[in-house]
Design goal:
single chain; mainly alpha; Berberine/berberine-like domain-containing protein; about 80 residues
């Protein structure tokens, strides 16, 4: 969030620089609440866990009616 729209891009650039600097100390998966707006859920789940979660989501809600801030569905096939 920026105080004025013009500050959004510079603020995001500064955040990206800070994240790049801190990358060597990244400890692995994080919680969904700690993800940034451009992060994917793959940062919060191990690959096999995310695959199982996506399988459950696809079998129980194939039309993605139930949604959250961080969608777990995988790429949708184009038709």
């Amino acid at each position: 969030m920026a105080p004025v729209p013009e500050a959004t891009a510079p603020a995001q650039a500064a955040i990206d620089v800070a994240l790049d600097i801190l990358q060597p100390w990244y400890a692995g998966p994080t919680t969904l609440s700690m993800l940034g707006h451009h992060d994917g859920v793959d940062l919060a789940f191990a690959p096999d866990t995310l695959r199982r979660l996506r399988d459950v989501k696809e079998s129980t809600d194939p039309r993605c009616v139930v949604r959250g801030n961080f969608p777990v569905h995988g790429p949708r096939p184009t038709r």
